């Protein structure tokens, strides 16, 4: 359990569905069962309230993009749910539709099998059958010793690639230059210097590496020669032995898996492009044409056997003529008058496949192209819809001919463990597989440390599956073929396997489909989940589960309106004391279902012989007719197969009904003549729309309507019964069309259904509602329950009332008296659906009076039923049997079995061990037989003993849980990235800080392992549909991780979506604000400023007539599509078919004939040209055209004058009464500045304008042009060149119509410009009435909550329209943290990435308070951090090291802050407790006198953003630190003002707006250059590397080009670039990786097979410098390379400097996009320092003064360990020593204390800041009263290891 002061989830005021303000507490860490009668509100409480809230809050932690695909629950109607955990629901609903999901993938078994196969599998050569293993020099030497006598002379050769660009003589010369002398060719050794021998094309060049003998003294030499030959020869070595003076043929030894592939885990997954069969893409089957569907086998060809050619169409009759023509030409005459089934095989083949493969060729030659050729022709026409529809009738799935249904590529099938391939193991049932694993895999688990845990996990999952009664399933069973009960139990094992903790699991009747034998096992599995610190809430009626629960919640006391109350909550043992509890009555034994006194004896049987399907093998069984038979047996024994596939499907065929599925094979079924029909009565929904009701379904609504039509009022008005229908006619409400409610689409919130304001939910118009009968109108009658209506109509006289009463009586008898007559059927539960279907069978009999005997097959009708409901249902069963029907009920519930007349027990086991009849007879006879499991459990029930949980029944080994440490997240064997087999225990419910040098492995541990694994495991148990849209985080390389709760990462995500992204969009506040404005805003005319209303159609006609008069002609356009993606070819065909000729597509007129499909991935606007009115048209004709356009455009049309490119919008929707202008309806996109519908047309939603415009003519599409413009504008904004506020929208970003809309008198621009604090106050003051209040409720709550939490994390000063590009990393992270506070979750692991970044020490305290609050709620915090204050607050610190990169990856020390100081290995402890005194150099640079104008840079009157006429003075040639609280104005001063003043001084042109940002500036004339050093990436693709950025790669390439080899081969320096075609690898184009892609799967990257990840082609790699290729050099780290290039100062000096600044661990060729922001910034700093050194050196040599540059550096200490901070300080000092002026924005007190000069800004953030509160040396600041003074005092006062 997590540490938290309160161990309960508190639900207060739950009103979801029929819940009546329920208050209940659910204990955490316990198993709670929620029970009660059907319809009492159990599911409403557990699923729709508890789960919905837990799942919804965790979903909020995902990105908005991912959330739209989640199966997101509606926000429940509840006052409060406190202490909620992230929730997972295990439904009995199989929503999996993809055949990629199998039991193996869903349970994680396949993930572990992949790992086991990659480590243990033996590769078999498909041709020779020999084992394949990569050779090593050692194994080759052993083989040579085994095959040849000692002393044999051997020649070791390497195979040299022969690049096309290099001829053989040049290659030989190159090899000689490298020291090689001989080659082996034509059976002899030849000298490479001889030019008179050549090789055939493709013949390998074998170069002699060494000649040695097989003697012990030459062993080292042999191994070295073999190792060199393999290294240089691409992993291949050739050995040529000499026997009896003759050189034998070369023996080839490979160091790889040829001809197979390397056994990586992905090779054994059909869901990976690496492993999937290339032909079927891992599906195991392909779509083909089933030719049998074209044939009627009992007919001859003459009589129409090929029935597809017998149609009326021209194509079909032509095909028959072609067949006859081909038949006449064929020498072998096929018999056309013989039935198809009697034809010989060759005759059928000719008819099917014709005379040849090419149908076109056959047709040209007059030969027969075959039925197959006809379908080939159709396949070429599939762009036509009717052809696709026609083909679908013949399409079928067929086993893949390549992999034969095994799904994997051929290479994967050649790897075996214990003699079995992966698919063979996937086909074994789980119980057999567990035994097999123990025999072949477990004994080998110790061979590899990583394998041990993989095998343990594999075994534990197999145990779980057996434990919950699923031992009969196979891993390759498709998930979508599982029943609801099976899917829920598979999900349960997935949860057990995921090892999650602190999670709320809500289970919906997990015992469904479970035999009593397996119930105890299921309870044991749930207890195991509980034991791991999880909370379980189970909706259940199974007695044993209720008795085994820790806590019981009983809902009731009745159903529907009579339920929804809490009857009891507490320990199960005490429920019997509650008199009104039905559950208590049954559990205590006061009430029970009686055993029938007499059972019916069957007289007739349905006799099944030889039934075969799944595990039924030639089964013979007799099913009694005219009685209630229970079909039972353990899970997987074959019950559903017998009932559905054998009986039901064969009955459909027998009775001539349509049967889409293939029935099971049977020898015979006798006795059909005794049945009229076989009906499946399941729990599936009857309808999916709210239009059908119990009254309609039961057939009483028609009678009720006719009774109302007979009233005097109705007769007087002359209305018929149809007038009283809400589904059609004039009687229904004209506004909601009889729905009773209106849907308000809420986009990313759940849609809201508000009561129709016209009919107030009654569904009818006022005229119908004024007709009364006995004081009630028809809406009142529909509002009555079945029970109340029965009482009412029973009291009436008359035939109609009597018929209504008798039908309602049936509904009452089947236990549906609580339903209202008008309740929509789509709101019924599964059990209610099933009982209504049974009632329908009884009702049909009342209607017809005839008694047609039916067999009713019911699959688990007890699902969701309480004891009391079962009693009712059994009474219905008796009534049905008495009416002559046969009931075959599949059921495990002992209450049903004991009540049956006859029982058929299948078994004895599930899967392969089932499929047999164990026993048949009465329940008593089953018990007496003593066979199988059913009899054993039935005995207790017949004797009246209670059903209890017996732990002995669940006695299964708990091997997987034995060694799981409690209370911690236990990580074992982490080897991800640079981690060295790390073991770590992180305490749950506490705050742990991970620290260490940059690159030591902290982020790998926190994000790539803890976060990735936590989120992956949670996603694994969510819907597969949702999973495909989440970023698939790869499984890290670890042995094991247990005790992991659901995880949320809060990173400093620096990618903020460009200049259109704002604080409002990042926090999602603007998304909700847009929704609110769209639904409740009042539109105003931008020109007139008056509210706009709606126009009449006649007004629109008048306006169009005016335009027509003005222009003489017009085009009337009907808007059809707005901003939606698609190709719209079908729409164009439809319009053309209707006689229209043109369409206005994306601003251009396009003819419909020959319409080209549009780009389906781009958004389009389409208007149909409905008419082209001309001046002479009469008004009636024009009115008709306007009406047609308005109808098609749903109230809108556009008028396009001749030659114009901009149509005018008109409509009957919104229009200004004053000026007549029309406007579009308000939609959320109206207020989006990312949509053309909402953005300002001048600035396109950026709020700023720059140089240049969108250039369509230079781009392939408008979208490309727009993206190009956006990128260019973002670049200009970064450079501050030519950027001004948009003159049209004044920075609001929206168009004039959107800017004019008001909500409670406030425009969107007004609210967006307010700081979060003020915006929150404003929104909280808004008041809404009636429907508006319902619409606003959730949206306003979301907005105010987000605004409040911005305040809580110290960001209340930010306005919603603030551009996200101006936010610091720290601000971005705190915005994310604010949203987490709002989720009110507990039990979550929060992984934070340096949250103190960018924070002033004062703000740090605020942040640490926020983290403490998260911890107090019962969450765990794992924080990657270097900040001293954060470490002091942590409960536990883990110090990584000892170095960075390959030198890191170990845990050096762990403990509290004080304990770390005493640990000698702790780098962090030493750095924090042993600080040198300030200033580190002993003295500071002298600050010049303020009077010396030439020694200062001055900028006066600065007024950007919140700056209040600031006068800033910076000493030249010094290190100045600019500090202050977050939001005080530091960046505005340094980047927004000082930088512009400096740029102006060096000659850059500024805009007028930029020049207004300050009054005067001076001292900048001595500045040579301005450098801004921020944390933006130095490259965005893998093609950019540190070596290319810093610039020394050019020098390295020059070195290589100067080698003798390169000069001889004619290679210049360009040859050694992997970015050019000359030198890079031909296959991967220099990336070193190849991307394997497959539809619907994440791409997979593997090292390029050609260059093996080296990026260069073979010819380039023949050139070496000091024995190393260019690829070898790029793999060196900076420290190693500095040593290697010692003799080249131009290269080694920068490398040494990089190593000295703590970056020695980076490699020269590392992709730039993998560097952190801090690493990128230090690379930039060092690059500038190198440039400065060169400039300084040149100046000194020429005797000139040092040129001064201005360096503006933003927070360089981000991500730096205290030790690295000191290295950084040294770099900053060196820059100042070179005569540069260095200004640093910084919050790190150590850097502040090292500055020559400090400027402190504040005193507060936002409007409370913007002034300089103190300036001077650090010592001077320490004596002042400013926000920073206190922290500098502490830093300066620090002695060795002591803080004052």
Structural account:
- With 1844 residues, this protein is an alpha/beta fold.
- It is built from 63 helices and 62 strands.
- Strands 8, 9, 10, 11, 12, 13 and 14 form a 7-stranded antiparallel sheet that branches.
- Strand 33 (968-974) and strand 34 form a beta hairpin.
- Helix 38 crosses helix 40 (1179-1192) and helix 58 (1689-1703) crosses helix 59 (1717-1741).
- The chain is globular, with a radius of gyration of 40 Å.
- 47% of the residues are buried.
- The model is unreliable at 1-5 and 1838-1844 (pLDDT under 50).
Count the helices. How many? 63
Shape: globular
Number of strands: 62
Strand content: 15-25%
Low-confidence stretches: 1-5, 1838-1844
Largest beta sheet, briefly? 7 strands, antiparallel
Percentage of residues assigned to helices: 25-40%
Q: How many whole angstroms does the radius of gyration measure?
A: 40 Å
Overall pLDDT: 86
Distance between the termini: 40 Å
Task: Kindly name the structural category.
Answer: alpha/beta
What does the secondary structure layout of this molecule look like, with pairings?
Blueprint: E1 8-14, E2 22-27, E3 31-35, H1 42-59, H2 64-67, E4 78-82, E5 87-90, H3 103-107, H4 109-120, E6 122-124, E7 131-132, H5 137-147, E8 153-160, H6 168-177, E9 182-185, E10 188-191, E11 205-213, H7 219-232, E12 236-243, E13 246-247, E14 251-254, E15 285-289, H8 314-329, H9 345-353, H10 359-364, H11 370-379, H12 385-392, E16 395-399, H13 410-413, E17 415-416, H14 422-426, H15 430-440, H16 449-467, H17 484-498, E18 504-508, H18 516-531, E19 535-539, H19 543-548, E20 551-556, E21 565-570, H20 582-587, E22 604-613, E23 616-625, E24 628-633, H21 639-654, E25 668-670, E26 677-681, H22 694-697, H23 701-709, H24 712-717, E27 741-744, E28 752-755, H25 766-769, H26 778-782, H27 786-794, H28 799-813, H29 830-848, E29 854-859, H30 867-882, E30 886-890, H31 894-899, E31 902-907, E32 916-921, H32 923-929, H33 934-942, E33 968-974, E34 982-987, E35 991-996, H34 1002-1020, H35 1024-1027, E36 1040-1042, E37 1047-1050, H36 1063-1066, H37 1069-1080, H38 1097-1111, E38 1115-1125, H39 1129-1137, E39 1142-1145, E40 1148-1151, E41 1163-1171, ...
Parallel strand pairs: 3-19, 3-20, 5-18, 18-19, 24-30, 24-31, 26-29, 29-30, 35-49, 35-50, 37-48, 48-49, 54-60, 54-61, 56-59, 59-60
Antiparallel strand pairs: 1-2, 1-4, 6-7, 6-17, 8-11, 8-12, 9-10, 9-11, 12-13, 12-14, 15-16, 20-21, 22-23, 22-25, 27-28, 31-32, 33-34, 33-36, 38-41, 38-42, 39-40, 39-41, 42-43, 44-45, 46-47, 50-51, 52-53, 52-55, 57-58, 61-62
């Amino acid at each position: 359990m997590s540490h938290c002061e309160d161990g309960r989830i508190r639900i207060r005021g739950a009103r979801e569905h029929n819940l009546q303000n329920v208050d209940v507490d659910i204990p955490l860490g316990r198993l709670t069962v929620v029970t009660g009668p059907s319809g009492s509100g159990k599911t409403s409480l557990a699923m729709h309230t508890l789960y919905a809230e837990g799942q919804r809050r965790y979903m909020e932690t995902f990105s908005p993009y991912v959330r739209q695909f989640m199966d997101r629950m509606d926000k429940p109607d509840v006052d409060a749910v406190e202490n909620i955990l992230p929730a997972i629901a295990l439904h009995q609903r199989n929503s999996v539709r993809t055949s990629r999901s199998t039991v193996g993938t869903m349970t994680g078994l396949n993930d572990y099998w992949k790992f086991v196969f990659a480590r243990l599998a033996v590769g078999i050569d498909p041709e020779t059958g020999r084992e394949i293993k990569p050779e090593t020099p050692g194994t080759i030497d052993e083989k040579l010793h085994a095959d040849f006598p000692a002393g044999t002379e051997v020649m070791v050769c390497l195979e040299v690639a022969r690049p096309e660009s290099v001829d053989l003589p040049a290659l030989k010369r190159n090899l000689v230059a490298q020291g090689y002398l001989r080659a082996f060719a034509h059976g002899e050794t030849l000298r490479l210097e001889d030019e008179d021998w050549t090789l055939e094309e493709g013949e390998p060049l074998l170069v002699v590496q060494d000649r040695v003998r097989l003697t012990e003294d030459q062993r080292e030499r042999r191994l070295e020669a073999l190792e060199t030959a393999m290294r240089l020869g691409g992993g291949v070595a050739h050995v040529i032995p000499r026997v009896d003076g003759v050189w034998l043929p070369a023996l080839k030894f490979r160091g790889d898996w040829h001809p197979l592939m390397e056994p990586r885990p992905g090779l054994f997954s059909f869901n990976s492009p690496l492993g999937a069969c290339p032909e079927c893409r891992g599906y195991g089957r392909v779509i083909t044409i089933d030719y049998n569907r074209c044939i009627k086998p009992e007919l001859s060809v003459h009589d129409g056997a090929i029935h597809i050619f017998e149609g009326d169409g021209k194509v079909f009759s032509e095909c028959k003529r072609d067949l006859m023509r081909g038949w006449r030409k064929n020498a072998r005459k096929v018999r056309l008058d013989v039935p198809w089934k009697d034809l010989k095989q060759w005759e059928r083949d000719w008819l099917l496949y014709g005379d040849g493969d090419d149908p076109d060729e056959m047709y040209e030659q007059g030969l027969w192209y075959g039925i197959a050729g006809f379908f080939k022709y159709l396949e070429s026409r599939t762009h036509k819809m009717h052809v696709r529809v026609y083909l679908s009738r013949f399409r079928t799935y067929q086993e893949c001919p390549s992999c034969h249904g095994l799904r994997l590529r051929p290479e994967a099938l050649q790897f075996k463990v214990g003699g079995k391939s992966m698919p063979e193991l996937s086909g074994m049932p789980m119980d057999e597989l567990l035994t097999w694993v123990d025999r072949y895999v477990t004994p080998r688990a110790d061979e590899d440390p990583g394998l041990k845990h993989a095998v343990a996990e594999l075994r534990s999952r197999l145990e779980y599956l057996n434990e919950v009664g699923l031992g009969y399933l196979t891993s390759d069973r498709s998930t979508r073929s599982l029943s609801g009960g099976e899917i829920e139990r598979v999900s349960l094992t997935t949860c057990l396997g995921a090892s999650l903790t602190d999670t709320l699991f809500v289970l919906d009747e997990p015992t469904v489909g479970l035999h009593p034998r397996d119930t105890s096992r299921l309870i044991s599995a749930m207890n195991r989940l509980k034991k791991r610190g999880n909370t379980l809430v189970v909706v259940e009626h199974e007695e044993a589960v209720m008795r085994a629960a820790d806590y019981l919640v009983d809902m009731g006391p009745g159903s529907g309106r009579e339920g929804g109350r809490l009857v009891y909550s507490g320990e199960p043992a005490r429920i019997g004391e509650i008199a009104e509890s039905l559950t208590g009555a049954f559990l205590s034994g006061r009430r029970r279902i009686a055993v029938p006194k007499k059972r019916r004896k069957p007289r007739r049987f349905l006799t099944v012989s030889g039934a075969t399907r799944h595990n039924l093998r030639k089964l013979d069984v007799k099913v009694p007719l005219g009685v209630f038979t229970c079909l039972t047996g353990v899970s997987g024994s074959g019950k559903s197969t017998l009932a559905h596939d054998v009986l039901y499907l064969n009955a459909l065929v027998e009775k001539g009904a349509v049967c889409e599925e293939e029935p099971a094979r049977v020898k015979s079924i006798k006795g059909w003549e005794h049945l009229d029909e076989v009906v499946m009565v399941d729990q599936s929904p009857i309808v999916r729309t709210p239009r059908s009701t119990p009254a309609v379904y039961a057939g009483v609504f028609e009678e009720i309507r006719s009774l109302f039509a007979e009233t005097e009022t109705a007769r007087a008005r002359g209305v018929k019964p149809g007038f009283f229908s809400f589904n059609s006619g004039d009687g229904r409400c004209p506004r909601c069309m009889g729905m009773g409610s209106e849907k308000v689409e809420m986009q990313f919130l759940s849609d809201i259904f508000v009561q129709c304001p016209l009919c107030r939910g009654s569904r009818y118009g006022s005229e119908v509602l004024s007709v009364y009968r006995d004081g009630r109108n028809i809406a009142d009658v529909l509002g009555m329950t079945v029970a109340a209506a029965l009482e009412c109509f029973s009291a009436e006289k008359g035939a109609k009332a009597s018929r209504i009463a008798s039908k309602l009586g049936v509904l009452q008898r089947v236990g549906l008296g609580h339903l209202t007559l008008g309740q929509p059927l789509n709101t019924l539960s599964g059990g209610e659906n099933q009982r209504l279907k049974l009632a329908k069978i009884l009702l049909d009999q009342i209607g017809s009076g005839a008694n047609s005997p039916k067999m009713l097959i019911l699959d688990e009708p007890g699902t969701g039923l309480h004891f009391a409901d079962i009693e009712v249902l059994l009474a219905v069963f008796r009534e049905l049997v008495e009416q002559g029907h046969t009931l075959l009920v599949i059921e495990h519930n002992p209450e049903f079995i004991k009540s049956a007349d006859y029982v058929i027990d299948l078994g004895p086991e599930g899967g392969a061990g089932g499929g047999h009849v164990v026993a048949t007879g009465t329940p008593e006879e089953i018990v007496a037989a003593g066979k199988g499991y059913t009899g054993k459990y039935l005995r207790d029930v017949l004797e009246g003993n209670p059903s209890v949980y017996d732990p002995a029944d669940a006695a299964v080994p708990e091997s997987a849980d034995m060694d799981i440490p409690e209370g911690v997240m236990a990580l074992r064997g982490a080897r991800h990235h640079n981690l060295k087999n790390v073991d770590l225990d992180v305490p749950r419910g506490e705050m742990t800080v991970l620290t260490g040098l940059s690159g030591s492995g902290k982020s790998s541990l926190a994000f790539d392992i803890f976060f990735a694994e936590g989120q992956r495991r949670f996603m694994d148990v969510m819907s597969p549909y949702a999973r495909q849209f989440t970023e698939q985080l790869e499984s890290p390389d670890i042995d094991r991780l247990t005790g992991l709760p659901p995880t949320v990462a809060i990173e400093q995500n620096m990618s903020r979506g460009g200049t259109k992204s704002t604080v409002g969009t990042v926090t999602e506040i603007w998304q909700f604000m847009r929704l609110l404005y769209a639904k409740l805003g009042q539109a105003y005319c931008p020109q007139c400023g008056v509210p706009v209303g709606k126009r009449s159609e006649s007004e629109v006609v008048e306006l169009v007539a005016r335009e027509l008069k003005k222009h003489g002609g017009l085009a009337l356009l009907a808007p059809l599509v707005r901003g939606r993606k698609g190709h719209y070819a079908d729409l164009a065909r439809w319009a053309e078919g209707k006689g229209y000729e043109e369409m206005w597509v994306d601003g251009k007129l396009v003819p419909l004939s020959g319409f080209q499909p549009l780009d389906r991935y781009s958004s389009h606007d389409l208007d149909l040209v409905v008419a082209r009115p001309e001046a002479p048209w009469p008004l009636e004709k024009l009115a008709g055209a306007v009406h047609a356009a308005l109808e098609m455009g749903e109230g809108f049309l556009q008028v396009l004058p001749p030659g114009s490119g901009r149509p005018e919008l008109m409509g009957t929707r919104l229009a200004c009464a004053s000026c007549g202008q029309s406007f579009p309806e308000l939609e959320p996109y109206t207020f989006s500045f990312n949509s053309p519908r909402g953005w300002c047309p001048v600035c396109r939603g950026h709020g700023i304008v720059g140089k240049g415009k969108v250039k369509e003519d230079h781009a392939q599409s408008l979208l490309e042009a727009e993206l190009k413009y956006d990128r260019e504008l973002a670049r200009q904004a970064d450079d501050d060149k030519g950027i001004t506020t948009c003159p049209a929208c004044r920075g609001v970003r929206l168009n004039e119509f959107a800017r004019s809309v008001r909500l409670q008198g406030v425009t969107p621009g007004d609210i967006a410009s307010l700081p979060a604090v003020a915006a929150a106050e404003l929104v909280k003051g808004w008041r809404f009435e009636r429907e508006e209040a319902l619409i606003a409720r959730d949206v306003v709550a979301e907005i105010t909550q987000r605004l409040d939490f911005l305040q809580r994390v110290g960001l209340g000063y930010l306005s919603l329209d603030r551009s996200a590009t101006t936010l610091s990393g720290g601000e971005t992270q705190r915005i994310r943290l604010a949203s987490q506070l709002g989720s009110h979750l507990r039990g979550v692991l929060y992984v934070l990435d340096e949250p103190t970044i960018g924070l002033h020490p004062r703000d740090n305290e605020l942040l640490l308070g926020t983290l403490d609050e998260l911890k107090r709620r019962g969450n765990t915090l794992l924080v990657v951090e270097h900040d001293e204050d954060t470490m002091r607050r942590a409960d536990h610190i883990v110090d990584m090291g000892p170095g960075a990169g390959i030198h890191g990856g170990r845990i050096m020390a762990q403990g509290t802050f004080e304990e770390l100081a005493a640990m000698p290995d702790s780098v962090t402890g030493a750095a924090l407790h042993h600080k040198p005194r300030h200033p580190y150099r002993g003295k500071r640079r002298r600050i010049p006198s303020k009077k010396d104008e030439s020694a200062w840079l001055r900028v006066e009157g600065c007024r950007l953003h919140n700056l209040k006429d600031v006068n800033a003075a910076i000493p030249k040639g010094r290190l100045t630190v600019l500090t202050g609280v977050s939001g005080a104005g530091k960046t505005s001063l340094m980047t927004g003002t000082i930088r512009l003043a400096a740029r102006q001084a060096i000659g850059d042109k500024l805009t007028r707006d930029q020049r207004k940002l300050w009054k005067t500036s001076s001292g900048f004339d001595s500045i040579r250059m301005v450098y801004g050093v921020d944390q933006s990436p130095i490259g965005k693709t893998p093609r950019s590397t540190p070596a290319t950025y810093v610039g020394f790669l050019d020098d390295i390439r020059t070195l290589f080009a100067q080698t003798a080899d390169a000069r001889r081969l004619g290679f210049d320096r360009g040859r050694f670039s992997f970015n050019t075609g000359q030198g890079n690898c031909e296959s991967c184009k220099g990336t070193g990786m190849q991307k394997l892609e497959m539809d619907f799967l994440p791409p997979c990257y593997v090292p390029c097979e050609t260059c093996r990840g080296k990026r260069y082609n073979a010819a380039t790699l023949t050139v070496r410098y000091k024995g190393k290729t260019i690829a070898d050099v790029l793999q060196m780290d900076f420290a190693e390379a500095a040593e290697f290039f010692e003799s080249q100062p131009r290269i080694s000096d920068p490398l040494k400097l990089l190593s000295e600044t703590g970056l020695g661990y980076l490699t020269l060729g590392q992709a730039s996009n993998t560097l952190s922001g801090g690493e990128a910034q230090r690379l930039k700093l060092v690059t500038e320092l190198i440039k400065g050194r060169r400039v300084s050196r040149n100046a000194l040599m020429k005797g000139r003064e040092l040129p001064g540059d201005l360096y503006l550096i933003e927070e360089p200490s981000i991500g730096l360990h205290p030790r690295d901070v000191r290295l950084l300080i040294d770099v900053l000092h060196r820059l100042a020593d070179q005569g540069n002026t260095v200004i640093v924005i910084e919050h790190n007190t150590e850097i502040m204390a090292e500055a020559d000069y400090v400027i402190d800004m504040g005193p507060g953030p936002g409007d409370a800041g913007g002034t300089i509160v103190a300036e001077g040396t650090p010592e001077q600041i320490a004596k002042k009263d400013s926000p920073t003074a206190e922290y500098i005092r502490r830093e300066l006062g620090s002695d060795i290891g002591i803080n004052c």
